[in-house]
Amino acid sequence: MIRTIFLLIIIFSTTYPQDGLAIAKMVDERKAPQDIVSKTTMLLTNSKGKTRTSTILSKSINNGSKQILWFLNPADDKGVAFLKIEHDDKADEMRMWLPAFKKVRRISSSKKGDSFMGSDLSYEDMTNRALDENNYKRLDDDTIDSKACFVLEVVPNAEIKSSYSKHITWIEKETLMAIREESYDRGGNLRKKKTFIFKPVSGYNVVSEIFVEDIQKSHSTKLTIADIKVDSGLAESLFQEKNLKRLPRN
Amino acid sequence: MLSRCFILSLICNILIAQLSISGSLKPSGMFRISDHSRIDLPFRIAELELGYTMGDFDFMLNSAVEYRWGENNYVFDLREAYTVWFPNWGEVKFGKQIHAWGIVDGNNPTDNLNAYDYYFMFLPGTDRKVGSLSAAMTVYWGDWQLEGVIIPDHIPNRMPFHEPDFPFQIPIEPSKYEKIDNSLEYGVRLKITLGETDIGISYFDGRDRSFSLLGVDTFNIIKIDPKFGYRATSVFGLNMVTFIDDITLRAEVGYFSTKNDFQESWFRFFVTEAEYVQYVIQFEYRTVSSSTIGAQLIGNHVLNAVGQTVDLVTMDPVAINTDNFVPGLGTPFAMIAEQSLSIVGSGMFFDESLELGYNLLINLEEKGQMVGVNAAYSLIENWSIDGSVSYFKGDDNPQNKFEQLEDFSHFQFQLAYSF
């Protein structure tokens, strides 16, 4: 009898993860590349339909915990570069290379809600969510574009000083990839709607398009991620200040 | 066979190298607020930057064309031409180049490696500096950074002599400057990252970039023959950046020690020695709406000054003291006032199509302030229209720097195209 109950618990827990944290852990532990190199086109559109396009070369390792970005376009931003290093035991490090000033400027990582280069993505949106920094609640499952999804309510812990009060995230059951998210401001009002499209690259599911709409500002950002290369063997030493100053050839 | 291999290898290297071209066209006009007359000073109408990457090497060229309305006079300026080698451990640079030290924005007491171009004093970043032939090496080691710079020849500030439209009139243009026997200058900088704080220390040994009266030829009985040149000056620097909740604090201080080291026997050179400090403390805060507010406390204090000089009109001897000593090195804005407060802010408006900024400079020692507003509107990608207004207000004292700047109160327009 005890053996039957034990087997039932095992089967139940692996087939029907009941709590949000278990789903978040599965998403966190999903097979991911060691490093990603990509070229991203960032299209900003304001409420009047006016657009601005930037092209960014991105290199990251450890699921984006270390990331370096170089702006290739537009002309007045060319050469601007951004380095982010996430730490578990201390505040994250963020540095920007400003070619016109010939200076690497250390910038605050505490103001997570700041816009990244005028886009609808904030620095917080670009940072990994640590499992222990959020509370996860499973909501009713849903179907998006014929894809069965887990739906999670993610509430950031007070100590991380998030600019959001909560996120509602749709996670495709088959791939454990987030395909839609709604983020709410500190007042509980809907702030951003995000949709994610991914594609298989060398056996991994990698995000290839992100659309972020700031509902309150009537402004949107579309990131189209191309030329994706994974597991190309990026060295840890790439993620240091000196490499901000030089646009890589590829 | 060997030469063919070499040529083939060279061709392959050139083919896989990368050329980058960028630049801007910026026709601009500056007009007085008082009578709307044009302020007749040169501006950079075109800038071109070429970069050529080959393996671990970059070759950089940075040039500009200066133009002055009315004179139809174009002057080409090769501002930088240098090579950078990027080994695993750091970077090595050689050639005519502009360095940038210091951690605060704009006014850096510890940034004395390059001369300033006073014609472009109000431009941001490296646009206001003059390149110098130099070699620099930076070593990165974990959270440590060590940089050394050697400058074989002293380069002075570019001063606007005989420019009635420039806000500060330079009373005399020296016909020659005393020859410097050993013009080698060098600087060393160490930066450490300690958690949320970056700390830097630096040392520079060189010469003033603004000239001083060093002596008078007492043997010349026909006419007064003043001797001008550049004092020997060393600077100890300390800077830091740290974050306190949502506020970013940057601070920088330079301790300057200067002396007149010209001692030839048949001229009379004055004995001059002085010590002074310049400091800048900067606070930054970003509001919820992503607007930025920043404040800088800028100070310049002469701690000790001894020696003598003469009044060039009366030839009367004058003792140098902390009140009349004029520094020849350091951030130019620290010399406008002993202590001043600068407040700057910027934000995006009208659906992010218009960037508005403001700046306020207040002299904390005597009456004087500057109020500035600037706007940039992006027409289409890579094109923008910029406008700014700068208004200076002093008192009736002609020695007051802000009083001298009053007639320089101006508005400026610029059409910018970047490529």
Helix content estimate of chain A: under 10%
Q: Could you spell the SSE succession of chain B in H and E letters? A: HEEEEEEEEEEEEEEEEEEEEEEEEHE
Mean pLDDT across all amino acids of chain A: 88
Radius of gyration of chain A: 19 Å
- Structural class of chain B comes to mainly beta
User: Biggest sheet of chain A: strands side by side, in what order?
Assistant: 6-5-4-3-2-1-13-12-11-10-9-8-7
Envelope shape of chain A? globular
Number of strands of chain A: 13
Distance between the termini of chain A: 62 Å
* Biggest sheet details of chain A: 13 strands, antiparallel
Which structural class is indicated by helix and strand composition of chain A?
Answer: mainly beta
Overall average residue pLDDT of chain B: 89
Percentage of residues in DSSP E strands of chain B: over 45%
Q: Radius of gyration of chain B, Cα only, in angstroms? A: 24 Å
How helix-rich are the residues of chain B, as a percent range? under 10%
User: What is the helix tally of chain A?
Assistant: 2
Largest sheet of chain B: 18 strands, antiparallel, barrel
Q: Considering residues with a beta carbon less than 8 A from a beta carbon on another chain, report the largest interface and each chain's count.
A: A-B, 39 and 45 residues
List keywords for this structure.
heterodimer; A: 250 residues; 13-stranded antiparallel sheet; 48% strand; B: 419 residues; mainly beta; 18-stranded antiparallel beta barrel; 3-stranded antiparallel sheet; 54% strand
What are the SSEs and their pairings?
The complex is a heterodimer of chains A (250) and B (419).
Chain A: H1 2-15, H2 20-28, E1 35-45, E2 51-61, E3 66-73, E4 81-85, E5 93-98, E6 103-107, E7 134-144, E8 147-156, E9 164-172, E10 178-185, E11 190-201, E12 204-214, E13 219-230
Antiparallel strand pairs in A: 1-2, 1-13, 2-3, 3-4, 4-5, 5-6, 7-8, 8-9, 9-10, 10-11, 11-12, 12-13
Chain B: H1 2-16, E1 18-25, E2 28-32, E3 43-54, E4 57-68, E5 73-85, E6 90-97, E7 115-116, E8 129-130, E9 132-141, E10 144-151, E11 185-194, E12 197-207, E13 212-216, E14 226-229, E15 232-244, E16 247-259, E17 268-269, E18 272-286, E19 292-310, E20 317-319, E21 339-349, E22 354-363, E23 369-378, E24 383-393, H2 401-405, E25 410-418
Antiparallel strand pairs in B: 1-3, 1-25, 2-25, 3-4, 4-5, 5-6, 6-9, 7-8, 9-10, 10-11, 11-12, 12-15, 13-14, 13-17, 15-16, 16-18, 18-19, 19-20, 19-21, 21-22, 22-23, 23-24, 24-25
